[in-house]
């Protein structure tokens, strides 16, 4: 657990830094990938990982502090993503990539729909069709493209932090 | 047979012969002989020298290859270092040009004080068009301060911490700015959109709006100083059954290439919220 918490600070810090400085500038239509969400999904899907919920809380607060979107939107979305990933990690563990794609797809949709809802409640004029076609769909596609490399990275990190026990 | 010439006579004869030879040489009578001899000597010298150099090359080639390889490696390293320096200097030239343009803008508009800042990031959410800049309250930046470049209006400071600030761009869908057309002084409202396009709304139906009109901030509402360049009208939409005209705007600032900005630190936005009428019970 302590290793997981200690790893969360540099990994999530790096992910947020790359997200705001690089990934945020790479657009498909008006959508962007969410590296933090992919990091959380990839990490939570690893079997031996402990403390994934703490990663979710830390990421939600960190991104919420930087973004103009309220922190609770990110917190709720990221925790929902982690819950879904932990659930799938135990049920479809034979197909980790399928689980990664599923959680990425649903998680991105949840995060962006919650953001859309929050903006709409603030009376920001947003057309749903335009938002869906210009932001939500492209963002999902970008996240799915990055899902496999992020899953590999997180698997390597988890294997380093939680090496498999060797049975003599 | 023994010669009986006295020694002095021998000396005189030898001297005369020598003098004669010198005189003939000076007179040019020996030229064919000397040139033949010179050519022969030079040819022999050339042959010896060429053979020597060939032999020396043969004996020293391996050492030269090694030293050449070493020298080549050194030069390649030097070239790589110089290329890095060139890229670094090109980057600095670009930054200097941008900053120079910002300084020119500040000099041309001396009524305000400015703080230059670099754009270091963008908002993680694709729904929001905010950028993060590298100056904050420690440099005198406060929420609501306008942000510009030499090209025109960028947005306003939305949130600040000690060493950074978040700026809401005019292209953000929640942005609404009071503007006017320079040619006709027609008032309008500049609004952003989810796609990053900006447009004019609330233009009176009888107002004359033409393509190419320059859009400036009006200063109404107290959020922005007046007369900051925003962009140009690129199309107008006027329908008889609508209350207002609308127009698409080409912003003067390229928001995809935003590297450095100026924060107007001496402009205090006015909060008119208490003056806004609320519906009675």
In a few lines, what is going on in this structure?
The complex is a heterodimer of chains A (168) and B (281). Chain A contains 6 helices and no strands.
Topology (SSEs and partners):
The complex is a heterodimer of chains A (168) and B (281).
Chain A: H1 2-21, H2 35-44, H3 52-66, H4 71-91, H5 96-121, H6 128-161
Helix pairs in contact in A: 1-3, 2-3, 2-4, 2-5, 2-6, 3-4, 4-5, 5-6
Chain B: H1 7-26, H2 31-108, E1 114-122, E2 130-133, E3 146-148, E4 153-160, E5 165-169, E6 176-181, E7 187-191, E8 198-204, E9 214-217, E10 229-237, E11 244-251, E12 260-264
The largest interface is: A-B, 32 and 22 residues
Task: Characterize the overall form of chain A.
Answer: globular
Order of helices and strands of chain B: HHEEEEEEEEEEEE
Major sheet characteristics of chain B: 6 strands, antiparallel, barrel
Total strands of chain A: 0
Strand tally of chain B: 12
- Average of per-residue pLDDT values of chain B: 87
Q: Please, what is the average pLDDT of chain A?
A: 88
Order of helices and strands of chain A: HHHHHH
- As a percent range, the share of helical residues of chain A equals over 70%
Unreliable spans of chain B are: none
Question: How large is the count of helical segments of chain A?
Answer: 6
Alpha plus pi helix count of chain B:
2
Give the termini distance of chain B in whole angstroms.
164 Å
Order of strands, widest sheet of chain B: 1-2-5-4-3-12
Total number of domains of chain A = 1
Structural class of chain A: mainly alpha
